Amino acid sequence: MTQPFTDQLALAGGPEWLTTKRRESLDLFTSLTVPTGSVEAWKYTRVEVDFDALRPHAKREVVQHVSQLPESVQRRLSSTDAGAFLVLDGPDVVYRTELPAELASKGVIFTDLKTAVEQYPDKVQQYLYSVVPAEVPDDTTIAAPGTTPSKSPDPSEGKFSALAAALWTNGAFVYVPRGVEVELPLGSFRVMSDAGTYTATRTLVVAEENAQVTFIDEQDSEELPGTYAIGAVELVVKDGARLRYVSIQNWGKGVTHIQRQRGDVGRDATLNSLVVTMGATLSRTEMQSYLRGQGADSEMLALYFANEDQHFDHYTLQHHAAPNAHSDLLYKGVGDDQAVGVFSGMIKVDLGAQKTDAYQKHRTLMLSSEARNFSVPQLEINANDVRCSHGSTTGPVDQEALFFLRSRGIHRELAEKMLVTAFLEDVLTRVPLKSVVNYIEGIIAEKVGAA
């Protein structure tokens, strides 16, 4: 077993049930190999990491005022419409705003996960590791909260999940009781400031029956060579609930980002997710929706813009386990310079999941002849009364449109920015969060050099 990780586990603390789970997860991590191209889901992405050389991100102290936070976080917080938020620097919460008293009186909980383990142990134990376990569940079963999931047919896929399960230091915890609606978004802003380290975080959002909440999960840093951000996001959406989850990854150059996000969606419940990938040198994001209940609905949106030597890999699963459920996936990406984009998406319909209505669309705009894109849309249908479709397109900028804009006196960089924004617009128009959309458009402008 890797000694630094063993030492870190000893310092993690927590109740006996959590310590046991961490230890089991670290044992699993040690037994697995790093996934390679021989594993289908990792065919186009290779992660090179010397685990023995990794050291944890340094601890950070609480700050008293927003002005003491990194400038990028200050700018973002000044425009956010979040009703309450946490700011984490590496493993520690360094700043927070309190949940409005009205919501707290209704039983809404929003705090960091480490605090939640101490103050709300029953709720955390019930759901933690239930949706994203240490190992990867197979494609037929994702365990219900409180039960044990099946193991993956490709166990090496679970190495990073096992590490995140063992060594997570903190993250966010959201709990919304039955029938409560949280109108303003809640947010978590994660930064790193210590190069050559790793940080492991975990997010757990629980929306009980007929509850409603929006959660924004953002990551940002300066250039940090040799740094690793490993995470897991568990989204529990009970019957009739509505959850909107937004993830914006804008780590600096030199960061390797690996995160698994999975939603468990109950009867007549809705999960709307948006994954935005703009930063890090290598990013691997998995977004999966398990439509457990009849009439469940999942909207899966994503935007990414890879330039220079960035490598972005997105792996998705729309898993229909019940009849009359609906899912709609729209992933749109841009590739420039020598960047690499990878998309592998699966619609899986279980036996008995009749009247499934599922769509998957992936489109990539290439700004450079040297950029590469790999797209693997897939269907696995085990029911005979379904409507499923998938498709993928990759192509360059429309030269006629570019010529038209330049002939009107618009310089090339601004013209490309306008075309890229237009290309991504049908995703952005589906996001009813103005501050988030404005922030994303600003990153896009910077990417094409037209800020």
Automatic annotation (TrEMBL):
It holds the Pfam family SUFBD_core. Residues 193-423 form the SUF system FeS cluster assembly SufBD core domain. Residues 16-186 form the SUF system FeS cluster assembly SufBD N-terminal domain. Belongs to the iron-sulfur cluster assembly SufBD family. This is Fe-S cluster assembly protein SufD. It comes from Deinococcus petrolearius.
